Amino acid sequence: MRDIFFTEIRNKVREITNFQEDAEMLMAAADKILEMLHLARKEGLLALEEASDNLGEDDFWHYFREILICIVDGFDQEMVEDICLSRYFKLDLKGAEGLVYLIFLWGALAIQAGQSEYVVTKILQSLLPLPVLQIYKPKTWKVELTHTEKMEKLCQREPVVDRESEDYFFHHMADYTFANLTDADMKRLLKDVDSNELTIALKGMDGKASKKMLDNFSLEMQKMIVEDMEFMGPVRLIDVAASKQKILTILVNLINDGEINGDNYSHLSAFM
């Protein structure tokens, strides 16, 4: 599908003779995908059914509605691709209209796959012709902190558990351990940590430990993790503790296997 898709993208871009006239339609398509992504991540894929009913009646939006309904009805990715590409070739759309259909299809598949807003925005930008990309500013729905501001806020957090709590020692020990791992040991640890467990643990981790973990990811991965934390919403402290325990267990196993030097983390002896 990927080869066919990108071949058709190139063909449709070549057919466009006036990017200025078609820019508004292409940017509106990209913004609508981001809007639907925001809704799906917030309320689930089923929320797209009602939202699709509110799209316009012309062909421009009708194409997107058809694709969204396939996703809401539970078709798997391969079936959505087969149905929608067959429909695309039957319609024989030219120029910007054909490009819009392909953008709708790729965007809908990204929504179905649960891609982050950051990743989908980058995908959309890569699909827009350069003259359109130069004037396109992705739509947002609320005033967002910059990534740097979000990181600063995360990395300045105080411990989430009160000193009087019976769980304080465990959380303090876990956060202390994560904050004091060497960068090399942290990178090795993170290779084996499930992304969902990491997100839950970070929701209840103090600033120093959060900084140590996030500093060992690329900027793109940091943005994805922070976004996942935001969309996850509140989590129970018991779930945070369970995720931290799983990460500590992975660390202990790596020490026992000799992949990480345990001499630096003697306080973990109770777990070894």
Structural class: mainly alpha
Helix content: 55-70%
Would you tell me the overall average pLDDT?
84
Q: Which blocks of ≥5 consecutive residues have pLDDT under 50? A: none
Separate helix tally: 15
What radius of gyration results from the CA coordinates? 23 Å
Q: Terminal Cα separation, in Å?
A: 49 Å
Sheet bearing the most strands, described?
none
**Strand elements, count:** 0
- Name the overall outline: elongated
User: What percent strand?
Assistant: under 5%
Domain module count: 2
What's the quaternary structure here? single chain
Order of helices and strands: HHHHHHHHHHHHHHH
Index terms:
single chain, 272 residues, mainly alpha, Annexin V, domain 1, 2 domains, 69% helix, 0% strand, elongated
